[in-house]
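Database export, one record per block. Field names are fixed; values are copied verbatim from the stored entry.
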Amino acid sequence: MGLAQSAVVGLGGDVYRSLVESASDAILCVDVEQRIHVWNAAAAEMFGYSAEEMVGESLSRLLPAVVRAGHDELIRGFAEGTADRAEMGVGQDLSAMRRGGDLFPVEIRLARIPSDAGPLFMASVRDISRRIEAENARYSDQEFFAMLASNSFDGASVVDREGTIMHVQPALEWYDPGTPIEGWCHCDDLSAVRQSLDEVARYGDGASVEVTYRYRTAGGYRWSESRLTNRLNSASVGGIVINARDITLRVEADKVSQAQSEWYEALALNTSDAVAVLDADGLFRFVQPSADGYDSSYLTGLPSSDLVHPDDVEAWKEALEDLVDRGSGATAQVSVRGRYPDGYRWLDSHLRNMLDHPAVRGVVATGRDITEEHLIGEELRQFKETLDQTLDCVFMFDAESLQFTYVNQGAIAQLGYDRAELLRLHPYDIKPEFPEAKFRDMIAPLLTGERGQVRLETFHRHKDGHRVPVDVSLQYVTSADHPARFIAVVRDVTDRHEFEVRLQHQATHDALTGLPNRELLFDRLDHALARAARHGGAVSVLFLDLDRFKLINDTSGHGVGDQVLVAVAERLRTVVRKGDTLARHGGDEFVVLVENNAAETDGVSLLAGRIRDVLQEPVRLGDSWFHTTASIGTARSTDGDHDAATLLSNADAAMYQAKNAGRDCIESFDSSLRARLQHQVETETELRTAIHGDELRVHYQPIVDVASATIKGFEALVRWQHPNRGLLLPAEFIPIAEDAGLIGAIDLWVLQRSAEQALIWDDTGADELWVSVNLSANDLVDPDIANHVADIIRATGIDPSRIHIEVTESALIEHPTLASAALHEIRQLGTKIALDDFGTGYSSLTQLQTMPLTHIKIDRSFINGLGTNPTDTAIVESTIRLAHDLGLTVVAEGVETAEQLAFLRIYDCHFAQGYYFGRPEPVERLEPAATAVAVGVPVFGAD
């Protein structure tokens, strides 16, 4: 145990280490020589070095040269006890150095830790870069705004709610703090300013209003345009801020413009158009004296809508309201019928919003009489309105120039241009695949009379660039009164086109993930192989199958499973190259098609590695996390030497090899792989027959009481008596049984036979022998596993305490929640639960506490070194001590020598099994041992 570790143990052991590791500040522990002994996670993040890199290194690596001497002096002072508050810690601001040489400011607090081996110093380091930046920014902002206020040409002051000056800009030197509002505001403007102060105070913090008033200066009064801002709640202001701009020159200029307005009025009085000025509500403020008998003084103050035809009043009011809403300078055009003494006339009215203009203060309306033009165009208007109501687009274009001469509203809506823009275009401008020459060739048969109509399906180009599928009917029209022209009726067939595209997509893509489906994959693979055969190159296929995906469907439902598949597809899209094809082959299988150069051999391996990495990250759905990995098989075809089916089959075979290799790995197809896979398929077929054909056997290995050297139970181990291959051990068929879903049936068959055998031993007087039976990870996720065990106990009548269920650490880690639930149910039956191969997995103390365990079995890999390997010996001793503390029974596996047994007796191990006591044997060879148990005879020479 190192120096710092000893000190930490003295301060609280695991608890103190947890506090150090979870601290947000970097925690370092150094000795007098400044060698680092403790380095927490925050230190690794702050400095960029891992604990492995820094423990044992000098602290000087983290300090720039200019501060090292001062830091050395500080450490020496603490060591000698001369530094102030050495035992309590002291804050120091220094510069530190990250990996790469970047310097940054830190605040360090030191504390001395008592230690028998010499003084140690615990340093808490905090990065204060942001704090310093914020302080610098605050000082900079304060200086900037102070400079801005001092040099601004605009006036700035702070007043209270009553208008009394609290603070004033130096430029307004004729005001003093405490000056009331009457001392700086013109008496005629006091009411407006007070009203503005009340409003900005009422609106709340940060609110602003604007007001124009005259303010007192050293030489008299000047005009000001000011913004009042509520800063009453600000700790640094505490008042209403007034930012004032002098507009005296602008006011005087407005007076000059008044004279100009008289000139414009004279111009308005002599124009032939009707001219009026309206207020915001549409009331007449001015009307040009009319030659038609209207008295302008009579109209002043009346609603302008009174002179508009009842059918046009709504349009007139809407135009006026919209104009007022759009603000100063806005214009509008509206045609209405105006009332005259001799009846109604059509007026083309132009409106301009000049409400903010100081010389007008109204809406200027001019009206031009278009009655004659309106009557002439009424018939044409009705015709055009009819065309505009059609859903189809109508175009007319000149036969010679091909320029559009008419477009209806449907054409405008379809193509996104306004009418004026379209009338400057030609048909070939909106048909991307038809240049002018090709378009003239297309209409030539119409000009010669060879054809009376042209029908075609094509695309028009929208103004924003996207293509619109259309059905076009084109005719050539001539008459004596008009130039020759073409009329085109165009129907938007986007819905039909999208439906056809959707049908095509549905036929070639997976409905769930949107990826290409198997049919499209085979089509692209055929084309890729054909290209490779013609031009050379390689075609590779990666076949992916998600590991244990069936468990997600079985435990969370197919809806959740579908969401996981969609998430997996999205992740795969992020790593597959743009030119490759990612397809869903079916179920939880995906395929990637890669085309590359024949000499490129490592690209597929790199891609497979990226896919493996991206799928190892868990998928989050709501509050649940789902872990997905994939078994990946790759196959390659050079110069098109395979067909599509063969290449996919080879990749599929390699994927199954990855499954058998332990899942979450990558395998490539080679010449011997298919033979091995064929052997596995044959073995699976034969195994299904063996389960029901009395070919399985149970062998039993004795479990011995270490203190008395007597047999207390047997572990039941399955064997396969193959009719042609002889006796097969579990490693030759259990992995195949797990993949084929047969392991559950085998495990329950072994449990049934073992329980029956224990009852047979009862007849010899050995009525206390127990049997240990293994359950796999697949068994623990079966929701009915506890019911199956209970059925066997009831059917045989065996005492449940004589049944020991063994599970491996890997089975608990793979599905901890489901495994815990299953084991608790089985334990409630009265059985014992043993954790097998203890020490080879990643079991935690939490699992030992939460799982319903009664036994732990120390793995044989530690027993092999017992007495010869100090590490193995220490592990075995610690494990036995831990089990005693937790009230668990310990079984040592793999005992092969008397020396190992002697050590186990010293450590008070409860039970042992191994070749020293006997190999797994068929039941007929165990009768002498069972008899010895019945009479209580030690069978291995106890002391």
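Remark 1: The longest helix spans residues 129-151.
Remark 2: DSSP finds 32 helices and 37 strands in the chain.
End of record.
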